[in-house]
Amino acid sequence: MSRAAIFFATGFEEIEALTVVDILRRAGITADMVSVTGEREVTGSHGITVKTDMLFDEADLDEADILILPGGMPGTTNLEAYRPLMDRVDEFYRQDKYIAAICAAPSIFGHKGILKGRKACSNPGFESHLEGADVRQEKAVVDGHVITSRGMGTAIAFGLAILEELQGADAAAQMRTKLVYHD
Questions:
Q1: C-alpha 75, offset from chain centre
Q2: CB neighbours of residue 23 within 10 Å
Q3: 123: containing domain
Q4: 3-state DSSP call for residue 57?
Q5: Which CATH number fits the domain that encloses residue 103?
Q6: Which of 21, 101, 124, 157 lies 20 to 30 A from 137 at CA?
Q7: Which residues pair with 134 in a beta bridge?
Q8: What is the pLDDT of residues 33-61, one digit of tens each?
Q9: Degrees, nearest 5: CA angle 168-152-105
Q10: Residue 72: its pLDDT value, please?
């Protein structure tokens, strides 16, 4: 079975994080909500507090198939400032394991040089941070093992793109039908 790790920092975008967790769990994927704050409860950018499954130090990221970074502000800045997570993002990228980011968070990949020569998207206000990318206006973009998306309005498309990479097109199509989601 596939395993995903979704990271929560103070100021995360609630819809982006929780939509992905919901879609993956509905599909039978283990979706670990991982706090980088040192506390299990993390408050999002709109004042919604979520109890995560574990702290970063408790997560067995060697078992994860994908690392997922939700956007939001200052959530994105807080994720990027958390060196242990950034080290793991670099490691996953080098190993050709999946990494994904939505909204402002693809800017982290841009700052790291991960998007050079790749198709990618982000929230329009952060497109200038997608250094070297072929910037697209699609809801979600998959280029190799890097998945990006634009914002809370594209969170379902982002979750479905991740699901498709982990379980295939049929699984994503079935979930799309269950969710009554139309592109």
A1: 12
A2: 24
A3: 3-179
A4: helix
A5: 3.40.50.880
A6: 21
A7: 119
A8: 999 999 999 999 999 999 999 999 999 99
A9: 80
A10: 97
Provide the number of structural domains found in the chain: 1
- Distances in Å between the Cα of 161 and the Cα atoms of 36, 53, 91, 111, 115 are 25, 23, 22, 23, 18
105: pLDDT confidence band, cut at 50, 70 and 90?
A: very high
Note the pTM of the prediction, 2 decimals: 0.97
Q: What tokens were used for 71?
A: 């956007």
Residue 100's nearest CA partner among 164, 50, 46, 40 is 164
Banded model confidence at residue 183, pLDDT cuts 50, 70, 90? confident
For residue 171, report the phi and psi dihedrals to the nearest 5 degrees. Answer: -60, -40
Residue 97 contacts residue 65 (beta carbons within 8 Å): yes
Can you say how many angstroms the Cα of residue 99 is from the centroid of all Cα atoms in its chain? 7
pLDDT at 176 over 80: yes
